[in-house]
Amino acid sequence: MKHLIDPTDLSKQELEEIIDLALDIIDNREKYSEKCKGKKLATLFYEPSTRTRLSFTAAMMELGGNVLGFSDAKNSSVSKGETCADTTKVINCFADIIAMRHFEEGAATVSAMNSRIPVINAGDGSHSHPTQTLTDLLTIKREIGRFDNITIGFCGDLKFGRTVHSLIKALSRYEGVKVVLIAPEQLRLPDYMKQEVCDMHGVPYKEVDTMEEVMGELDVLYMTRVQKERFFDEDEYDRVKDFFVLDAEKLKSARPEMRILHPLPRVNEISVDVDADPRAAYFRQVENGKFVRMALIVKLLEWANDPTKTTELVPKDAVRNKFICRNKRCISNMEVGVDSLFRPAHDHSGDYRCVYCESKPK
Amino acid sequence: MKHLIDPTDLSKQELEEIIDLALDIIDNREKYSEKCKGKKLATLFYEPSTRTRLSFTAAMMELGGNVLGFSDAKNSSVSKGETCADTTKVINCFADIIAMRHFEEGAATVSAMNSRIPVINAGDGSHSHPTQTLTDLLTIKREIGRFDNITIGFCGDLKFGRTVHSLIKALSRYEGVKVVLIAPEQLRLPDYMKQEVCDMHGVPYKEVDTMEEVMGELDVLYMTRVQKERFFDEDEYDRVKDFFVLDAEKLKSARPEMRILHPLPRVNEISVDVDADPRAAYFRQVENGKFVRMALIVKLLEWANDPTKTTELVPKDAVRNKFICRNKRCISNMEVGVDSLFRPAHDHSGDYRCVYCESKPK
Amino acid sequence: MKHLIDPTDLSKQELEEIIDLALDIIDNREKYSEKCKGKKLATLFYEPSTRTRLSFTAAMMELGGNVLGFSDAKNSSVSKGETCADTTKVINCFADIIAMRHFEEGAATVSAMNSRIPVINAGDGSHSHPTQTLTDLLTIKREIGRFDNITIGFCGDLKFGRTVHSLIKALSRYEGVKVVLIAPEQLRLPDYMKQEVCDMHGVPYKEVDTMEEVMGELDVLYMTRVQKERFFDEDEYDRVKDFFVLDAEKLKSARPEMRILHPLPRVNEISVDVDADPRAAYFRQVENGKFVRMALIVKLLEWANDPTKTTELVPKDAVRNKFICRNKRCISNMEVGVDSLFRPAHDHSGDYRCVYCESKPK
């Protein structure tokens, strides 16, 4: 069974198959309008996320399928203490494919381990949100026309932003990609991203303090929010916050072909005076999110009947119940019956990483 | 683009087109059962209102369309602080038409200003609730057979009842309409309704203290609830409350063709011993609400492709960011990025009225 | 009109018709995929119950019908104080059949009394949950092949477990059924179940303290949860709790054809090491719940047009407004406008039982 828990579950070829299918769907809406007739998508949202939930819902409806589920754990059996594993087995009787959003990291992995139908991770805590990455990639494809030979600036919270990390990983598979990092000192890209991703894949990066100094170089500017709570020092926050707000003035030095992306919701990090600019692609990005989810649903349902398509949920070199994860929000620490699972880190350091959430052992 | 924010957005002719279509739908259910196949209605309910939400949902389903949305802001991105404007732009990617319920007055106006698809106001605070007015009108049409030459009594809270104000405005367009106002002193129809609506359109009205004294004259008795909280003086409430409760006894002097309407939910202002009386039309009114919403959805989707059909969201004589609205629940005071907008009052007094909520400036 | 409020509303023949239809649906999925096209099921869940709600939803979708409703009373008009009777009359305008879950006992009865469309009780407090009983029966039919000549063990909370009582009642209609009761002293099957059901229908039963001592005799082991809150004495709970937990070890003495049922959700009363055993039927039971609800919906919609099919909501020998129910959670004590209704107890003792909840008068 093929699931989508993390963007890396897809090979470069599989990912491009999904992108290509999304492009075909965009051009031939009618052709796909009954593609999933009689199929059901379960949207299991243990925390509210309207945009993601409605994107999946609209996607399945435009394929002629049905949608059932819950939009908040308070309205679900979770309040009666059912495990994620049991809920998955129950939902397997009601649906053909699952999209799960959970506040516990690794929840979608546990669900997939217990599922006879494909599971899509619609966000598990701050761990992974692969359909956002697919959305970003389809937007780059449609707006820029290619994945290789692009210079992409990431602005805002590069330390905690899971969408930033995932998109850098995904683009690191392509030639000629350059990354520009625009962040306050406190929110810089973590070292392991620089070393294990950029350096290992030969992706040049540079760090700058303001977007103005690099605006003219960029093909893509990927904006994220700088949250006050991330700062220990409020004065420091007040000092830097305006540096990471995009407005029409700052946009003047950008090239006409440059495109602005944002995973939304935005608060004030993009001024509304930018919205009418043709370079503002963030609302088009929302629609791309729907199209790429349509393509993903079609592909996963197709792959479910293909025994050669599998997701390796437990790596062959994983060790079971030997370590304890240091991440308190990891599902291995929160749900009974979930074995601890660790695999050797990819950097051959001898360290181990949690299979559910990629944290280190305690 | 044509929206429905306030009943006055529809001309008399457009309104009658919708009523006529509703009547045709009632007679030819099968003919419309796939009318909206492949279309999606977004029900964006920032506060719960089961009856209205399910009425829209049933309407769209009986047209063969799909429904997505949320039933409570707590389960939506609103908790993450997204503006109504941004949410509308996002939902534009997922649906073909929006029905919005909001606790902020003017929210549907802001949504319409940011929308490429039709927006229906499903109630914005105590400002407007136009599909209730359409429901009332279809019920009068079906039960009485005409809009002109009717005597209609309004009983209960005539001061704050938005459905009462809207229905009086709508009926004031017809000949021979007489209005009887049955309300406690504290909850009488506001002066501006008497002057700007009744007097200006030549609608005779009279105010009485009890329904018994006028029961025999009425073609329609429109009941609403008298809420205890509206009274400063609890003794006064206790003294008058029973005057505004309809029961089988009081109904004895009514004519056999008279009809009782109520927007529901009722608490105790209509005794259950009235329910079985053929003059009790309030549950039939619920079904009319579904039919008129079906007609409205069909018409707005049709008009969306007609460039001559527009809603003037910003009046030509409006002034921008000059005044501040005195209404704390007005969206211009609650959401960033919403310009203040005022237009001259229709009574040529030189006063201004808020474009979002019709309040005066501070 | 035929409703399903309590399993006893169905004759043995009607029940078998539903089971047989469920079996036909399982074998001929395609044949039923548009059986309810154009029909709408209203799921009115005054308290959350994800599994039951999604089972009904999936069932209606697999019949080609639509589903609308609410999943929690907080998001419904109930917060505005509308009665169950009025809500039912409103929903009659929007749907073709109702599934109602309510925390008040007798709520579905009141709904049915006010409904022109079939009402299915999806659980009313601790009173009745008939579709769980249908689910259990279909599972026994599919797993064991018959209803007669079976020995069924009930383990856990036999005092408060409504599913246990209902299933014993349903099976008591068949020949050769033997019941084994495995429960702590505090949670034994109530005397009236032993006398009015088992003894009256000639069903032999025995009470034991551990499942081990009877495991080899059983055709079916029906597990339920022993809740700590049911015990006055915590030490006593700690002493006995493990006796009522099923694990792989205890299962060793069971026959290969034995089957384990559980209404779910389970907490820890069935160890996860049992899940992979072919005798563990509880997740297959979930799917049976969907199939039997499909059959029930089809049958009730069919019977709605058959004047010979009725549910006797008010027994002919009932007395109105003479007694008051002693059950605080009975709808007759909680909702205005609901008459008190009592009927003579079936045991000819001269006692009376509440028509809504089967409690005694005060």
TrEMBL record, chains A, B, C:
Sorted UniProt keywords: Transferase
Question: EC number(s) on record?
Answer: 2.1.3.2
Superkingdom field: Bacteria
Task: Give the first-level EC class, as a single word.
Answer: transferase
This protein's name? Aspartate carbamoyltransferase
Question: What's the gene?
Answer: pyrB
